[in-house]
Predict the structure.
Amino acid sequence: MSIAESRSVRSLGIACCSAIAEMTGSPTVGLYLLDGLKPELAYSSHVAEGLLDNYKAGFWKCDPVLDCIMTRGCAADGETVIGPQQWRHSPSFEMLHEWGLAYNMGAPLWSSRQIVGVLFTATTDAPYTPRTRQRMEMLCRAGSLALTNMMNVGEIGAHRGAIPVPERAATLSASLPPRSADVAIRVCRGQTNKAIAREMGISDQTVKEHVANLCRRFGAHNRTELAAFLLSTTSRR
């Protein structure tokens, strides 16, 4: 309830930090709001400044946890996404290990069926379990209510994760087939594959194929990198 009833981003971050510390034993928290698709740090606790700088400098573009969150719209942890055998050889682990951490996890914050923020945590202890990820999702549902209320009363910008569609739709449509352009716009909004499929009346698999084709077309390695490229390209025009 303390999370859902938060009336400022700072109070939301403090409430989430308290709940995560109780849930995982780690006070490490980073709360990001999406500006387009780029995560802008809104609150952090017990996170090294160097790690935050590294992430802000561009690591988020190739972060497999963020990419999984934006694709599936659910909680994800690095070891599960990358695989237990590959985790300790991954760039994600190396970055965390440099700052005394070993595992990370994140989950989406929603408003009006769009992902408008992401809550991250990290720990030095054991890997996250399915139960912990489930509890993280429940925590973020409460956080989503708080963020939506803040947007409704003007505490933070409404739908800051949304993209001005008409202007950018015209730009994308000029170089893409109409269906691909529609998918690209929704990827930039932060919508998940399921949300895109539901809104466009097509299957999840068709959305995946469109996203894969867009990644190949623009040389992106994943969905997050694709959206970052599209947003930076359209904003320059």
